[in-house]
Amino acid sequence: MKTLIKNIAELYTGQQAESQKSQFILIDDNYIEKIAPMAELTLADEYDRVIDAAGKMVLPGLINTHTHSAMTLLRGYADDMPLDSWLQDKIWPFESEVSADDIYWGTALAAIEMIKTGTTTFSDMYFAMPQVAELVADSGMRAVLAEGLIEANDGQAGLEKALEFACEYNNTAEGRITTMLAPHAPYTCSEEYLAQITDLAAANDLAVHIHISESKKELANFQKDQQRSPIKFLADINFFKNHVVAAHCVHLAPGDLEIFRKNKVNVSHNPMSNAKLANGIAPVVDYLKNEINVGLGTDGVSSNNSLDLIKEARMAAYLQKIKYSDPTVLPTDQLLAMLTQHGARALNLNNVGELAAGKLADLIIINIDQTSFSIPRHNNLSNLFYAADSQVIESVMINGRLVLDSGELKTLDQEKIFYEVEKRAFKIADKLKGVSNE
Ligand SMILES: CSC[C@H]1O[C@@H](n2cnc3c(O)ncnc32)[C@H](O)[C@@H]1O
Ligand SMILES: [Zn+2]
Q1: Domains of the chain, with CATH numbers?
Q2: What region holds the Amidohydrolase-related domain (predicted)?
Q3: What radius of gyration, in Å, describes the C-alpha atoms of the chain?
């Protein structure tokens, strides 16, 4: 099937720094065949369906480099707490009651939210990955999936299962699913466990997704117990020999930046979660100055509490401007690059993050014509990042398929998903209330 997106008022391809006016995109099944000015559209450009993008801006689909999708089940369940007690007293007890089916439905709710806010790819570290993969297949989304490993809970059996999942599901769902290994953090996995994961990742050509240096306490505990930072500890065990996506990376010790630069570590910056849990503001400007690749992530919905990457980018810009007392840092073109090309690089995805002939057709169509946020149109990217809400996202195409068409979800049954999530989340919360009241 061939699709023509015509009359695009403003197009950001990611390949050219500047936007282009009045363009068309021709898509052949899941690949972009051609992008050119409308004046160059000829009868030779054949197509089966047309999307009229007059008054619309088209961007590459947005990429969430770090989340725990099914944590939608915990939205609003545990707020305003510090990381360690939030995890130990509220999140982990709740998660111990969550079933594989609950995770399917929680991920479905996440997919609704991601699609409606323009996310086409997400990187998930959570439990019950076969169910997450099923939802990804059903929803039409693109995802990088990894079974999260906490050594005390998962041990060797969990590691075997995670590896089996990664090998079996890599490149499935028409290529929309790729996989990684995901040790949770250096404070929940021992040196031996992390070394074993490092070797298994290398042997199976898998990238690794992990939380690192999220809180001040994590850095202080490591320095007390190990006389080195978590990043130096990981470097010492050769953890960075694989492609690594490191979430958070808020607190660095001297030398850590150089370790990241030398080893080409990819940082997933999660400003909303870092702010809400009061973990601090990551030194993103320093990462960028050192040519360290930075993508954006939302983290899970219990520490955010949404999956909206436009909001995330806005928060990233504001916090970096404050941290460095410099309003020029993280301008809107940089935000877009972090959400698209840099995110794709972080996730080891070569064919998304940019719009060009030969790339996969993952894109979003934004209304810049009839929303108050979009007028006046001095600068549409500025309006998107500094003014808009997700209402401006009109259509979302993933792998050449419209999953949101003029505001209508095409792959997911929203009513059923809302019902299932509400029912399942309350059931777990009620059970835990019973336990703590006894
Ligand atoms: C082993 S699956 C992932 C695991 O991580 C937990 N989690 C969610 N957010 C954070 C965070 O900000 N720091 C550390 N761990 C986090 C999640 O609840 C799962 O248990
Ligand atoms: Zn996380």
Answers
A1: 2-60+355-406 (2.30.40.10), 62-346 (3.20.20.140)
A2: 57-403
A3: 21
Cβ–ligand 1 contact at 211 (below 6 Å): yes
**H-state helical runs in 15-120:** 83-85, 92-95, 100-116
pTM of the model: 0.98
Q: Which atom of ligand 1 is nearest to the CA of 184?
A: 1
Cβ of residue 247 lying under 6 Å from some atom of ligand 1: no
CA of 298 to the centre of ligand 2 (A): 8
| Average confidence score pLDDT of the chain | 97
Q: How far is the CA of 28 from the centre of ligand 1 (A)?
A: 39
Strands (E), 38-74: 49-52, 56-60, 62-67
Q: Which value does ipTM take for this structure?
A: 0.99
Is residue 119 within 8 A of residue 64, CB to CB? The reply is yes
Whole-number pLDDT of residue 436: 53
**What average pLDDT score do residues 352-376 get?**
95
pLDDT digits (tens, 9 = 90+) for 122-147: 999 999 999 999 999 999 999 999 99
CA 401/CA 399 separation, integer angstroms:
6
- The finding on whether 273 has its CB within 6 A of some atom of ligand 1 is yes
Alpha helices in 227-308 (DSSP H): 230-236, 256-263, 271-276, 284-289
> 303 in ligand 1 pocket by Cβ < 6 Å?
yes
Residues near 403 by beta carbon (within 8 Å), at least 6 away in sequence: 115, 139, 140, 141, 396, 397, 409, 410, 411
Ligand 2 centroid to residue 265 C-alpha, Å:
17
